[in-house]
What does this fold into?
Amino acid sequence: MNNLDRIISYLNGESTEEQRRELERKIRQDPDLLAEFEAASRAYELMRSGSRAKDEDQFRSSLAAAMQGRTPRTGRQFLLPVILAIAASLVLSLFFLWPGKQDAVELFASHFHPESDPALEILFQPDRSPGHQGNAYFNSGMYPEAFEAFRKAVASETGRLQDQLGLLLSALYLEREAEVMEMAMEACRNNGKHSESMLWYTSLALIRQERFEEAAACLESLTILEGSYRKVAGKLQKALLK
Amino acid sequence: MKVAQIIEGIRLHDRKVLNRIYRENFPQIEKFVLNNQGSSDHARDVFQEAMIVVYRNICTRDLELSCKFGTYLYSICKNIWLQERKKQMLRAEKLRSGAAMLVREPEPERDFLMEEHRKSLFQKHFARISPDCQKILMMYFSSYRIDEIRKEMGYRDHHHTSDRKYRCMNSLMKRMMNDPLFKRLNDEQS
It folds into this structure.
């Protein structure tokens, strides 16, 4: 068992009494181990609170879906039973055509892996040109700063196509894609060099926003173009239309 | 439905249980909110917030109720709405009296940015671990027992499940700790 595993076991409250005393004794005697323990404790707390927040988000989604199910009868609904029945059947037929909110979350999470996307290599190159610090912030995982830097770059005369992509990706990390959808959709139609990546990540943004029909349409070009997204776009489009 | 079944259903995000709770309890909650200067939309928000409170209580401690679940939920909803009404009335009173607008102490920008960085750091690396690891960690930190995680993940035994849990934690923590942003945040906090 390495130090990190011992620390995890300790923080989980799963160490034996002897293991706990042993670790505490070593931490008291070894300043390096103390520093490692403090850093690991912070990482553990981040992991704990972050995982709980994610779980709570899923609970909210399940609750929202459950509240959209059979609704409680109130006075107004008794007045329009026939119209409600027709509306419900229309809504249900749409529901079965397109994935639900939970599927949207899962579809997005299973396809959003920009760090392992070879088509994005250029975005991860260091860029020291003035007015283009977005890459540096993005590479350091500083997404709020990257978002602002890319946004300024896009708005300026020196804005580049990759800045739009950087802005979209930063927005996706920050769950702020709604703020950049217009740019993404426009860029999808007009971009040359980066149109494939923009199409792909715009499709994912649309999926997370449950705009499945638009996402499927956005993926259409990728299924035809001979590019790195062709296969995965085809599979994702099929999943949307299932 | 027994209270224990309800609590278990909430804990496992069981939509049938959640829907039943909504159908059986929302009308009464909506009536309370409407009778206290609220709208149906307010009632839905109050219901959702109350259910989040219940969910957190279930996850962070073993919830044992000495009353009906509906009574418990209703009391939480009532508290939430009455607190909200109190805030609305205080704001209205200040405006009427012509008092200066309550100026909120601006949150220290640095703390807010640090919190945003921490969240981004977690999200970035959480997204990189496997979906199975993500699921295991979410379940573990929402107080799922190891046996429940084992069943949900389809693992063969307790030991294998525990081992996977450690590997996932180790993997995520190492990724975060090796990120230059983590080191920077760590240094600023020390």
